[in-house]
Specification:
The protein is 0% helix and 48% strand. The protein has strands at residues 13-19, 22-27, 32-37, 43-47, 61-66, 70-75, 80-85, 90-94, 107-112, 118-122, 127-131, 137-142, 154-160, 175-185, 192-200.
Amino acid sequence: YFDSFGEPSQFKPTDIKVRNEKIWVCDLESKKIQVFNRTTRKLIYSFPEANPQDSSYLFLPTNLFVTDEKIYISDFGDFKIKIYDLDGKYRRSIGSYGQRPGQFVRPKGIAVDDKANLYVVDAGFENVQLFDSQDQLLLFFGGNYKNKGDMWLPAKVYLDYENLFYFQKFVDRKFELKYLIYVTNQFGPDKINVYGFIEYR
């Protein structure tokens, strides 16, 4: 044990990201993103300051991902991924409630790759949807668990660029493995699925 921060009676963190000397936390209690100094653990600012009628309002922020320019937030209560700049200014949202491709029922974990492609876990569809930098749906993978590679109440997605060596042998030689995609499952025999993003050599 090293340290802790946050008042238990006023803080319900659901996800965290450390980047750019800041600690970004999804807080269900305040329905905001709390931003702390990485060294002092002191609160710097929080956002959004909004009413439920505003597009920027967070109903149930459950997961987040921070890049050098943007923060992506999974709003479980509004069935959308909401995007802000690093100062907390609302930019746009992706998705809506529904059962069509590009829509969400239970959006949870999110991740963004080095080309600004967005991965979104949906625990309702039990899949992951992939959007490009223009918010267009590219594909989805997973599905209700029947065999390996399927999902069972998935919750989190994580991209890994460092451990490709261990998995390249499973990829056809015509392709190059660019990064790994880990998806956690809360139920079923396969608690962590590993997928690969590949490109032609």
